[in-house]
Each structure stands twice: as structure tokens, then as C-alpha cells.
Model the fold of this input.
Amino acid sequence: MIEASNLSKRFGAVEAVRDVSFTARDGEITGILGANGAGKSTTLRMVYGVLTPDSGRASIDGIDIRGETSRARARVGVLPHAAGLYGNLSARENIHYFGSLQGVGSEALAKRTGELARILGLEDFLDRRAKGFSQGQRIKVALARALVHDPGNIVLDEPTNGLDVMAIRNLRDMLLALKREGRCVLFSSHVMQEVAALCDRVVIIGHGRVLADATVQSIREQSGTGSLEEAFLRVLGDAEGVS
Amino acid sequence: MRALLTVFGKEFRENLRDRRTLLSALLFGPLFGPLLFGLMVSRMLDQSVAESDEPLKLTISGADHAPGLTRYLETQGVLLSRANFDESQARAAVRGGSAKIVLIIPEEYGPRFRAATPAPVLLVADSADSQTRKIADRARAVIGGYASTIAQLRLQARGVNPLLAVPVAVNEADVATPTGRAVVVLGFMTYFVLFAVLMGGLYLAIDSTAGERERGSLEALLSLPVARSSLVGGKILATCAYMCISLALSLTAFVCVFRFVPLEKLGMSANLNARTALIFFAICLPFVPLGASLMTFVASFTRSYREAQTYLTAVLLVPTLPIAFASIYSLKTKGSLMFIPSLSQHLLMTSVLKDEPLAALDVGVSAAASLGAALVLMVLTARHWRRETMLG
Done:
């Protein structure tokens, strides 16, 4: 479970995130939806602890990310916005590197890599150098790298960026599989259809604030149209009025 | 510690597969100095051998006006080629390169010689050309020899003891040992050794910092439950390893080069064998972590490979500054200078080349100062890596 409470962050004069709170539960996929520059990445970065919030706190399974950084981080797998691989290492070596930095023993690592390769479909290129990988292959390896220590929580920052239709579909299946295993999946996107198709809950962020936080179902009902697009536009429209 | 070693292992292995790193760490860095050196020294050798063996060539104009001088020059083995130049023609010939030096004997030479008044000759040469300058010196010496022979004969003919004209006899004693003389030439060598150290780690320092950022792998790495000091430590350690390899290769190359370059013929002896190479390695070893942490520190602030390259190329020049100072002020090994990294290594290596004994205290201070500076830079680097700005 991932909890964010009252997170705020400024960069100089820019208030990137203001008082953002939400909870992403185990066994659910939570989507953070917002336009480019709305504060999604900044929020996620505070959640996995590479940025320090000016106020508020974030916790992973109840462990404060600032207070017990290492313990909290060991429970989360992260696929950042820039998910680059080491080109001179093979896919397997990339995964092993992160695994051993996570403290996974070599035997467990070999077993886990085999599992992930099967689930994510990496077998064909597992021992090839990552230099020539397609964007889809790269995301798969980066996802395997994030899952190598078998974390209960996964954070993904715009994972579908740059992927083709097939790869997006693959990714969607993988996220659903992670959810079925009872993990907490938190991902950000600026594509509404993606969120609608995948998420149980959606947190809509605009201008650094939470505009709505509800189940996809209830947002649809609230808007009265049954269409998430309408609902989304209505929420954003209200926000424009507010700010 | 485990994480640090994991980072070290990965950086070491990954860069072993990188052609750019290998070329700079294992080829250009360590071999550039020794090769340049071998070439320089053998060229100096060729020149000096050529100069002493080759007969002096002289273009002479108006030889008929001074048959005595001409004959004397020929008996001294000077190869004369006769020409008929006036002064401006001679200047043009020398400037144009068709003659190296020209000796002009004017018409008035004969009458003045017979009258025992100074008989003028004109030597036209280009002193900006170091080779002609040497030839001109030789020509001057030969003509001077003729002049003093004539002077003695004249004094004798007048019943005067020629020794009266030599009130002071200057004798010279050059105390430079063959090794000492070689040090002038080998002075550069110490810089090339330090250069090889830095060059060895250059690309690894870039790849493990700016490269990590440019590749987009940095954020994932920073979100792992690993202390930033372990990440930085592993990266610096890997850079150190490449620097050590480069240093070892460079010293090996120097030993090989000096085995083939016959320095003795230049009146020098290079005290550079496997044993001195090992001592050099030990002297430079504390400089390695300093170089590695300096480069990693600087590269950590850059956003891209290209930017890092620009700054680190400047860092390559840093060790030259103290060495340049040392040669301008001809500094000798002494205690207080041992606190300055790169200069202390230079001075210690020079002492070894000169066959001077090393003081244990000097070696200790040199090592401690370099390691201390390295430690400070490592701490600063780790602190920078803990900052949010690291994400870029």
C-alpha cells in the first residue's frame, strides 16, 4: 500500500505540487491522470523518495520513505520516466545488477530472472546486449529490473510512452497480472483511455493539486454521462474555474 | 560494502566492453607519452651523432682573397663550396635556404692581413634555426683557431712570448652526472606518467556519472535502497582500477622504450628499469584515488557526455601546473612541497631518476596529502549525489 498525505513541493517560484494526498491499495491499480506538467512525476518522485517534499509525507506499506528510506524502498519497484538500460550489459546483467543492489542472493536472483523472463517474454533477448533494444524491449527489461526483488508495490511513471499498440497491450496485461497477485500498482499517465481501461481508482491532478480521487466507476456516475472523457473534462473545467 | 563492490564490478565489466574507454585507458593514455618520448630522444640522438660526425659544410665567397685561411679550413676537414656572392646575395641565399651559412671574404682582407691590422670576414647565418646556429658556432670556432695560430706566429716573429697574450686560462669542470643530464630530458616523463593515470580513468568517470544521466538509468539507480556513498564509492573504485592499469601499462612502456633508446650515447644514463618502475608505481599510487575522485566529482555536475568531456579535458591539465612551476623555479625535493599532489610525485620520481635517496618522511607526506585530498573530494561527491539536483 502506498500513501501520500499532504505532499507539497516547490522549485524556486514554481509550486509544482500542492497538498496532494491519495492512497493506492494492494490488489488495485491506481492511476494518476493529468496533463503534461501537472505534477505527476514530481508526486511519484516524492513517493519513491528521490525528492524530498517541502511538507507532507509518503509511506510504503506504512513505512515512511524519508524516515526509513532503505526499508521502504526495498518494498517498492520503480520504473521511472527515463528507464534507460546499460547498453554494454545484456538484459540479464541489467536485471542482475539491480537485483544484487536490492540485496537478492545470487541463487534467488537466477531463479527470479528466469521467472520474470518467462512472464514478461524476455527469453529471446535475455542475453543480448541492451544497446540495440527496441523501446518495447527496453521497457520490458526495465520492468523486470523493477520487479527483481519481488516488491509488493510498483510505481510506474508514464510507462506507455513511446510504446506501440502491441507493446501497450502487453504492458496492460502485465499490470493486470501484478494486480491479480495482490500487489499495489501505481502508475501515471496523460492518456485517459489508458487509465479508464486499466485502473480501479484514479487520482486526477491539475496544476499540482488533486482534482478528483475516486473509483473509475464513481467518477463515471458523478458525471452522469457514463463517459470518463466527459467526467474528466468536467473535473478539469471546474479546476480552471477554481484557479 | 557489498553494494559498493557490486557497483564496482558492474562499472569495471561494463567499461571493459566499451571501445572508447579501452582506447583511452589502455592505448592512448599509457602509450602516448612513452612513444613521444622514444621519438624525441632518438631524434635528439640522431642529431647529435650527425653533428659531431658530419664534416662542416661552408659556402665561401672570395676564397682567392684569403688563400691561407682557405687552405687552413680545408686541412681542418671543412667542405668548402665556392661561390661568388656579395653581402645581399649571401643574405638571400641563407634566408632562402640554398646555403646554410656563407663566409664572405672581402677584397680588403688581403691588404689588411698583410698590414697586420684586423682583416674582416663576414659570416652570414640564421640564428633562429637551432641547427644552423650550431653549425655557425663550429665555423666560428674553426676560424677562431686559424686566427689564434696566426696571432701566435706574429708574436713569435716579433720575439714576444705568445703566452703573454693568454693571461687567464679558463678550465671548465662539468659536474653533471650522466643521470643528472638525463633528468632534463626525463623531466617531462613524470608528467606523462601522471597524464596516463588521469587518462586511464577519464571515460569511466564520465560514463559512470554523466553517462548514467544521459542514458536515463540514473533515476532508477537512485531509487534503490543503496546508500549514495556506496554508489559513489563503487564508481570511484572502478575508476581507480582503470587508472592503475593505465599507470602500469605506461610505466612498462617507458621501461621498454628506454631499453631501446641508447641514452648513453647522449652522455646520459636513464635509471629506469623494472625496479624503478615499481617504485614509480608506488609513488603514484596515492595520486590514483585523488585523480579518480577529482574526475568523478567534476563529472557529477555535468549533464551530458559532451559537457563532461569538456570539463575533464581541463582537469587533465591540472597536474601540469605544479610541474610547470617546478621547472620554471627549478624546485628541488623538499618537505613543504610534499603537501602538493602531483608536484610531490613529480619531485619524488625525479629524485629516483637522479639516483638520490628518498626520505621516508617525504614519501609519507606525499602519500598522505594526496590521499587526504582524495578523501575530501569523495565526501563532497557523495554529498552532491545525495542532493535532489542530482536527478537533473
The beta strands of chain B are 57-61, 79-83, 102-104, 122-124. The first helix of chain B runs from residue 2 to 16. The interface with chain A takes residues 2-3, 6-7, 10, 13-15, 17-18, 215-227, 388, 391 of chain B (CB under 8 Å). Chain B has two domains: 2-45+177-391, 56-165.
